[in-house]
Design brief:
mainly alpha
Length: 245
């Protein structure tokens, strides 16, 4: 059959109008590869084959657009295409092609992700490792690349975070402050032993906080209690706030 007309579409495809008024859509790269602009003829068998091959080209084009927004890893690309209803075989073809063309590299993705999290977030190494592991990135690559997040870098970030948390916990006693800092740093993925080591160097003077909290509690509780019972209730509340009196 003769191809009567090529009509360009916005998504990188062309509509091909055939002499029998049938219309098919093919990606422009596939049209060029098949030299249809030159031949301007196509058989029923070729149509069937090209429509099947076109699925790869469309999926590849969508994957490229997805990667163009920001760097992606293989697992993310596979999930994205799967949500679009692309078949497993086509996804495998697209991923292979993206890899061979240098658009998909899990090791490079992991390297960039680690550097970004070190520079732009408070995340510790264990949190970073956990996230990369959920993306099915090779464990050996993760363990090798995370070495950039060395002890000195961890120590520096831990101490910055300690100073930040100290400013935010000015109504508590030293014991509770250290507990909260320890809990937050562990949740962020820092090494427990290193956290304990840095916290042990911390000498928090909570005497001013203690006086403020004591006066506040005395004013409040003295309306209900007196004498030794009042003192007991105040000490109980102070203990809960991390003061050791």
């Amino acid at each position: 059959m003769e191809i009567v007309k090529f009509i360009k579409q916005r998504n990188g495809e062309y509509k091909l109008v055939l002499e029998n008024d049938e219309v098919i859509s093919l990606h422009e790269d596939l049209i060029l590869k098949s030299e249809l602009l030159l031949k301007r003829k196509i058989s029923s068998e070729e149509i069937k084959k090209l429509l099947e091959e076109n699925k790869d080209y469309i999926a590849y084009s969508k994957a490229l657009k997805y990667i163009g927004i920001k760097m992606r890893n293989e697992s993310e690309v596979r999930s994205y295409l799967l949500k679009l209803g692309v078949s497993s075989k086509v996804i495998d073809d697209v991923v292979t092609r993206l890899r061979s063309n240098g658009y998909l590299n899990d090791r490079e993705y992991a390297k960039a992700y680690i550097n970004d999290r070190i520079s732009l977030s408070n995340d510790g190494p264990y949190k970073i490792i956990k996230h990369l592991s959920t993306l099915n990135i090779n464990k050996e690559d993760i363990n090798d690349l995370i070495k950039i997040f060395d002890i000195n870098t961890q120590r520096e970030k831990i101490n910055k975070l300690i100073n930040k948390y100290l400013k935010a916990n000015n109504n508590n006693g030293s014991y509770l402050i250290k507990q909260k800092i320890h809990y937050n740093l562990v949740n962020l993925g820092y090494d427990r032993d290193l956290i304990i080591e840095e916290l042990s160097k911390l000498d928090i003077d909570d005497s001013e906080n203690l006086k403020k909290e004591y006066d506040k509690l005395y004013k409040k509780l003295s309306k209900k209690y007196s004498g030794s019972e009042l003192e007991y209730k105040i000490k109980q509340k102070l203990f809960q706030k991390g003061f050791r009196v």
